[in-house]
Design goal:
6 strands; about 30% helix; two-stranded antiparallel sheet; about 130 residues
Length: about 130
């Protein structure tokens, strides 16, 4: 990992949330701007959209790319545990059709029981 990271070890961050009177701990690390990651960036983004922004997209080859290890990374990066059971994988920046594609993939490939919870219905839905 050290050849891709700009720091030797992850950095621990401890912070207190007064809303819940609880202390939280997280660990972060940064990656170098390596050319090795650029093909993945290109695979998961679309810069041809005329909004002037780069949009995250789901590539056509996602079935092959979403391995158990990739799913674990996704969960650790953009997921959360749900107290009454299960986990949430955040998909806020994907289109509705891409979210349904991911749901089908997780159900078909890994036999997971999935539901979609749209917390921001005004966001991108094409």
């Amino acid at each position: 990992m050290q050849e891709y990271s700009s720091q030797p070890q992850p950095t621990e961050r401890v912070y207190f949330d007064p809303r819940f009177n609880k202390e939280y701990r997280s660990y972060n690390f940064s990656t170098k701007s390596c050319t090795i990651f650029y093909p993945f960036f290109k695979l998961f983004t679309d810069s041809t959209v005329k909004t002037g922004r780069v949009l995250k997209i789901i590539p056509d080859c996602i079935f092959e790319l979403l391995t158990p290890g990739a799913l674990a990374f996704w969960l650790s990066d953009d997921g959360q545990y749900v107290k009454n059971g299960g986990v949430t994988l955040c998909t806020d920046n994907f289109s509705t059709s891409e979210v349904f594609l991911l749901k089908s993939l997780l159900e078909d490939k890994y036999q997971l029981s999935c539901t979609i919870h749209n917390t921001k219905p005004w966001k991108r839905s094409y």
